[in-house]
Amino acid sequence: MAKRNDLRPLVKLRSSAGTGFTYVTRKSRRDTPDRLSLTKYDPIVRRHVEFKETH
Q1: Which helix H or strand E contains 23, and what residues bound it?
Q2: Quick count: other Cβ atoms within 10 Å of Cβ 16?
Q3: Which of 21, 34, 48, 49 is the 20 to 30 Å CA partner of 41?
């Protein structure tokens, strides 16, 4: 049975390059209450771009 944890919810990170590529990760609501923004690799454009949290 999966453990439900509301303190670290799953978030979807969408590429800012407009390719539609996404990552799924968890974030801490206590440490980052605002929307998450990370630089990660987008294999469609083959470079590192900014990924922003979407709901």
Answers
A1: strand 22-26
A2: 13
A3: 34
Q: How many CB atoms lie within 10 A of CB 51?
A: 23
Three-point CA angle 38, 39, 42, nearest 5° = 120
Q: What is the pLDDT of residues 7-18, one digit of tens each?
A: 899 999 999 999
In angstroms, the CA 38 to CA 18 distance is: 15
Averaged pLDDT, 16-45: 95
The secondary structure element, H or E, covering residue 49 is strand 47-54
Q: Which two tokens stand for residue 5?
A: 């944890």
